[in-house]
Every structure is written in C-alpha cells, then in structure tokens.
Write a structure and sequence with these properties.
Layout lengths: L1 E4 L18 E4 L8 H5 L4 E4 L6 H5 L6 E4 L9 H6 L3 E3 L6 H16 L2 H9 L23 E5 L3 H12 L3 E5 L11 E2 L2 H7 L2 E4 L13 H4 L7 E4 L8 H11 L2 E4 L22 E3 L8 H20 L1
Parallel strand pairs: 1-2, 1-3, 3-4, 4-5, 6-7, 6-9, 7-8, 9-10, 10-11, 11-12
Length: 309
C-alpha cells in the first residue's frame, strides 16, 4: 500500500513510524488544497486531519481507497461523494475526551481565579514591596454552589458535567439536537440556561442546529460577570457580538476555537478593552500527548480493519 500523511504538523511531532509496517509511507508537514491531487495521485490510503477532499479532488484520485481522518470531525470530506466513488472514510472518536475536559477547566480556573493578574503581580516583584502577606485586589469566586450550564451533553459534555459536579456546581444542560436524554442532569431551554447559569461551557459540533447559536441576543442574556467557555467549534459563537459583550457585560471568556483557524489578525476579539477577561488558546484542547497516542492507535486500527475487510 502507498500511504500518505498530508498534514503531520497538526499532530505536534507525533512519531508516525508505526505506520511503516502497512506500506510505503510519505509524510508532508502540511498540504495546500492545490497540492492534494499531486500528493495523492498514486496513493491507496490518505491520512489527514484538515485537508479538504471535495468532489473535484476525489474525481482526480481513482487509486484512492481509504481516507483515514486524524480526528473525530469529518466535515473536510465530502462523505456522500466519497461513498459514491467507493472510497472508504474512517475517523477516530473518543480519543480526546479527557484532554478537552481538562482544557475546559484549565480555562475556567484561570479566568475565575484571575491567574494572569496574580501571576503578573508576583513576577513583577510588586508582592515583594507589599506591607501585608496577601493580595486580594481582584475578587475570585468558587465553582462550588454555582450553576454550570453545558451546551451539548455528548461524551465530552457529559465528562465535563461530572467534573463540574465534583467541584460542587449544580449542572444543567441544553440539548443542541433537541433530544433531551439525561436522567442525571436537568434540561433547560437555551434562553433559561443562559439567563440562570454562572458558567456556560460549549461542547457541541458545528451543524445546522448550532451555527451562530450564541448571537448578540443570546450573549446579552448571560449574567454580568458570567463565564463562557467554547470548546466546541468557533462558528457556534458570533465573535463580533462576543467582543461587545465582554466589554459591556464584564464576561469572562475562554475560547479554544475560533470561526476561522488560524485566527485572523483583524478578529474583533483583539480589540476588546477588557483584555484580562479573555483567554484564547490555539485549538489545542484535543491534543494532549496521551490523546494523540490514542488517535494514532485508532488510526492504525482503522487501517487494519480496512485491510482485513
């Protein structure tokens, strides 16, 4: 088998040598759309995280037999047309749950605890000159006793809910597919959840039910000083409206995803006044070293299942 990895840089230096037992492996750090056909023309198996395989690409690759997506989401593949062409498409699910949930709480705790302010205060040696042993200049609060709303109670959302409960929060959720299913947590309609929760975290995919789900009207339903965390997809939150809401409502916001990735330099979130109220990480929540190892093992299983079919 001829195997190509089209965007290895998205895997953060993961050792891909275990793939060598399955064929002749060629690895590219990243691949532009216009390079895809040339790099895949003699390939049986293509491995990719985000490279697009649309109708035009698939039509130009008669030898392609398997696309193994190095992720859970497959929105970069025209799945219906791939099926028509007889190209098998596989993904890996469940590998990143612990990593995403951990990042959710990393963002939440850093924002709630005013970590950037207090760390800067100490690094700058201001504490050295203080007449007292402490500094409580900026208030922080406890998660215990607060109301935590989950948007999207799937595998990741459910794990986040259990951790929030362990902190002592009251957990409620909103089902983005309009199908409430939990017996453990109370389901609320979106408006009620936004108005009543102290902390809201998003763990939903981007689809017709979630695109622009939190627009200006919804964002201004949030309590003043509430915490909003998006670990789902950037297109779920209107970023221009969010920039306005951060300044006007004193929201604390943690984002691991943005509408366009990499984030563009003219994104309105760069222009907010209350910069201390916003943390943006570069879509890293999925990628702990353990999660990436699980992803590789899942990809190897996909290849073996395909070869043994």
């Amino acid at each position: 088998m001829n195997i190509v990895v089209l965007d290895s840089d998205t895997l953060g230096g993961l050792d891909l040598s275990p793939l060598n037992v399955y064929g002749n492996v060629t690895i590219y750090p990243y691949t532009r759309y216009e390079e895809t056909i040339e790099r895949c023309k003699d390939v049986d198996i293509a491995l990719t995280n985000k490279v697009v395989f649309d109708k035009d690409i698939l039509d130009a690759l008669p030898n392609l037999k398997l696309i193994s997506v190095l992720a859970t989401g497959m929105n970069n593949i025209d799945l219906e047309y791939a099926k028509q062409k007889g190209v098998v498409v596989k993904n890996v699910s469940g590998y990143s749950t612990d990593s995403v949930v951990q990042t959710t709480f990393m963002l939440a705790l850093a924002l709630i605890g005013k970590l950037e302010f207090y760390s800067s205060y100490t690094r700058s040696k201001q504490w050295c000159n203080s007449p007292i042993f402490t500094n409580l200049e900026q208030n922080f609060f406890e998660i215990a006793g607060k109301k935590w709303g989950i948007i999207g109670l799937g595998t990741i959302g459910s794990k986040a809910a259990s951790v929030a409960s362990a902190f002592g929060a009251e957990v409620v959720y909103y089902s983005t597919n309009k199908n409430p299913h939990s017996k453990e947590y109370q389901h609320l309609e979106l408006e009620e959840l936004l108005k009543s929760c102290d902390i809201v975290s998003i763990h939903a995919p981007l689809n017709e039910n979630t695109a622009n789900l939190l627009d200006k009207e919804q964002l201004f339903m949030l309590k003043d000083g509430a915490v909003l965390l998006n670990l789902g997809r950037g297109g779920i939150v209107n970023e221009a409206a969010l920039a306005e809401a951060i300044d006007k409502k004193d929201l604390l916001v943690g984002l691991d995803v943005t509408q366009k990735e990499p984030i563009e330099p003219d994104n309105p979130l760069f222009n907010i006044k209350k910069k201390q109220n916003l943390i943006i990480t570069p879509h890293l929540a999925w990628g702990s070293q353990e999660a990436r190892q699980k992803l590789l093992q899942g990809t190897i299983k996909n290849i073996e299942d395909f070869l043994n079919a």
